[in-house]
Amino acid sequence: EADAAPKSQSGFPDGFLWGTATAAYQVEGAVHEDGRGPSIWDTFSHLPGKIRDGSTGDVSVDHYHRYKEDVALMKALGATSYRFSIAWPRVFPDGTGTPNPKGLDFYDRLVDELLKAGIKPFATLYHWDLPQALQDRGGWQSRDTAQAFGAYAGYVANKLGDRVENFFTLNEMLTFVEHGHAAGVFAPGLTLPPQGVNQVRHHAVLAHGLGVQAMRASARRPIRIGPAENITIGIPAVETPENIRAAEIATREFNAPYLTVMLEGRYTDAYLAATGADAPKFTAEDLKIIASPVDFVGLNVYTPSFFVVATDAAPHYRALPLPSSYPHMASPWLTIGPEALYWAPRHAATLWNAKEIYITENGTSSADQLAEDGQIYDTDRIMYLRNYLTQLQRATAEGVPVRGYFLWSLLDNFEWADGYATRFGLVHVDYTTQKRTPKLSAAFYREVIARNAVA
Ligand code: GBH
């Protein structure tokens, strides 16, 4: 068999993990089953006008009932890992108090099925589906929610930690804070004033730290934990040493209330100066909790942010707006920047000395038109993945410690405020019949995994 791409030039390190990612509310459906309580996304998606196609996650792709078929799809890809999220309102229908054992049972079954297929499970504790009961008591505006997250995370680590070794705490604080609490376009749909938003940010990172501590304390064997953040990725528009330094400084500052405070244990001077009287209220003890040591850093990588050095004084960088002609994928926000998959992990290693990095999400939407033969020839998704993965390979070849990659997403699913019109899956789902059909990009990814190289 001819080898199109010699391994020496495009290979990934031995043992590199290849997987896909999903999130509970986006795939599970079964929202009233086995004692699950409502989440803020149930509430939000049922409000008129909030979801572009008027849809909800009530049924979605019915993964709750079809998980065995879905694990078989992963196995057919040759995937060695899988990142899923646990629905907090399945485990604690009221957010706190008495757990619902039947809710956790689903994840027990899923984990067993994955292990049987030789697929390493990575569980995310929070992918935006806050129990509605906690929202009714103030949600992320309340410090109590951070405490409740710690209790929930500790409970899950105790129950699943015997078979799940790797956990991510909260997925993309940046997104659920900014979109949910400032712009109001994601659940819970709030448009808080600046101090309120900063306080929500603080409670999110505090929840992460409390979660890390509670999970380590209650797991019955050592487990490994880290965040999964959608960072602003500073890219030197031209790779000179000065521009690279500017991009590093910008990356640290733009992520000040998220990854930077989690990994450094302090808010940057620039962040505190910029927020001024609207800065979050916090204690020195909070900062210690927030910076509880993690085992790895998870990065969701989609879009680029370009910088060059600024010759004048602070902040030493100049953010470059994208020209209106800049290309994007099927989603208008999804501007194409393959080099983001090189710079995001490199910055994590340079700025915060990250010793172990996972790409917790990367992938793209496509129009995904059905061809006459019923297949989907998503060559745009293949183009996107091939270019991004080439940049990831550059990072690993240079020694940046990336250990695995989770492609978003296994299946087409409920794309939040976009509903079902936007498809991110390697596998097409017919939302009427629930029939799964791997797209051409699934064949591409299978080839990447088989070769452990950009195919
Ligand atoms: C990730 O967010 C999420 O973790 C995942 O759940 C999601 O399905 C996936 O990416 C694909 O979107 O509608 O113009 O206001 C990536 C960051 C932030 C990108 C919110 C889309 C909304 C843009 N996302 N953003 S807009």
Proportion of residues in β-strands: 5-15%
Number of strands: 13
List all distinct small molecules, including ions and cofactors, that are bound in this structure. Answer: ligand GBH
Oligomer: single chain
Q: Would you mind describing this structure in some detail?
A:
It comes from Enhydrobacter aerosaccus. One of its GO terms (biological process) is cellulose catabolic process. The active site is at residues 172, 361. Belongs to the glycosyl hydrolase 1 family. It is a single chain. The chain is globular and about 60 Å long. It is built from 17 helices and 13 strands. It has helices at residues 7-10, 24-27, 40-45, 63-77, 88-91, 101-116, 132-135, 143-160, 173-182, 194-218, 241-254, 256-264, 269-275, 284-290, 340-352, 379-397, 440-451, and strands at residues 17-21, 81-85, 120-126, 166-171, 224-229, 234-236, 297-300, 305-309, 317-320, 357-361, 402-408, 427-429, 436-438. A hairpin with a 6-residue loop joins strand 12 and strand 13. The longest helix has 25 residues, at 194-218. The strands form 3 sheets. Strands 1-2-3-4-5-7-10-11 form an 8-stranded parallel β-barrel, surrounded by 6 helices. The two termini are 14 Å apart. Helix content is 41%, strand content 14%. The chain is of the alpha/beta class. The chain binds ligand GBH. The site of ligand GBH has 16 residues, from helix 9.
